[in-house]
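Thread amino acids onto this structure.
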């Protein structure tokens, strides 16, 4: 039995809370930072704002009190947007979480600092918390997890004993967890695939077909791997669940926020207009800037990422970007 605290009551935090609470040996406390929204969740026992139709089990508690949310927790899941994580961590007294397992389920790279989520934890809370931090990632749309659709993910930390403990706590007949020691690769996979999802959506919005999508995803995986290995990730991780698996799901699914943003851009709408209408976060927008800047600093060539950056932030026409990609100097294909 384990007691979980989940920080972040968006769609993914809610889905994880329901999935864990449905394993009757666990208890779960879900933190929603807005007191009025927390009251609504407690009364309605469903998250109609972000995950409608998925009822809360009886052993899923809602709170807006951060200290209370962390009290007596065996494991703490951080499921707030990547660009918000630092501000949440700064509200936490390190003594509240000393010795506890910390799990990151957000997929992004912090803008400006270019830090992965585990590195943000280290920067704010120190080395002990960093050592206890695991990354959870893989093809796992909240909408499907909440409907008990079979899902597989990977959880990573260099300490294999810690990973195996978390693996057992999370795994159930509809949620299978694989172990990894490559936290660098797993975190980068979950972040960088969102850039490729934006690119895929742009091509969908432009009216292109399966040929384009297949090529874009394949070459996109090459770019993810190229940058990930340069940053210390293992090449094989990018061919696994957190890399190829999550990229395929995010690039093709109706649930993907990043693919949706890209599609709307391809249809000719402005980025500001699209984001203003969204209630949930498309992490790939900020990650595109961070990924582009990391690649520039390391002198790693990422043609697709560069064009997505130009479309998002430099006003490049999407059709022109595709033309420039298609007419680059000819290359020999390099396999993963």
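Threaded sequence (336 positions):
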């Amino acid at each position: 039995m384990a007691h979980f605290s989940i920080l972040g009551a968006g769609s993914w935090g809610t889905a994880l809370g329901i999935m864990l609470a449905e394993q009757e040996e666990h208890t779960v406390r879900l933190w929603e930072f807005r007191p009025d929204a927390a009251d609504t969740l407690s009364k309605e026992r469903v998250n109609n704002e972000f995950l409608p139709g998925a009822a809360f089990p009886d052993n899923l508690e809602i709170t807006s009190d951060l200290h209370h949310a962390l009290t007596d927790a065996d494991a703490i899941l951080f499921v707030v947007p990547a660009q918000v994580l630092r501000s949440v961590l700064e509200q936490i007294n390190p003594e509240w979480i000393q010795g506890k397992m910390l799990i990151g389920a957000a997929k992004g790279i912090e803008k400006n600092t270019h830090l992965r989520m585990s590195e943000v934890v280290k920067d704010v809370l120190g080395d002990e918390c960093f050592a206890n931090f695991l990354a959870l990632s893989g093809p796992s749309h909240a909408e499907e997890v909440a409907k008990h659709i079979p899902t597989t993910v990977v959880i990573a930390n260099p300490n294999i004993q810690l990973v195996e403990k978390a693996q057992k706590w999370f795994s159930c007949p509809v949620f299978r967890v694989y172990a990894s020691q490559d936290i660098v690769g797993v975190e980068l996979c979950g972040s960088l695939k969102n850039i490729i999802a934006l690119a895929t959506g742009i091509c969908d919005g432009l009216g292109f077909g399966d040929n384009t999508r297949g090529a874009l995803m394949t070459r996109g995986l090459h770019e993810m791997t190229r940058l990930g290995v340069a940053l210390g990730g293992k090449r094989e991780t990018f061919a696994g669940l957190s890399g190829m698996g999550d990229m395929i799901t995010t690039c093709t699914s109706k649930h993907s926020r990043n693919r949706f943003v890209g599609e709307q851009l391809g249809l000719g709408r402005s980025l500001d207009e699209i984001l203003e209408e969204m209630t949930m976060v498309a992490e790939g927008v900020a990650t595109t800037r961070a990924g582009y800047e990391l690649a520039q600093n390391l002198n790693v060539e990422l043609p697709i990422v560069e064009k997505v950056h130009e479309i998002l932030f430099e006003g490049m026409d999407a059709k022109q970007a595709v033309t420039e990609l298609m007419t680059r100097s000819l290359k020999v294909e390099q396999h993963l």
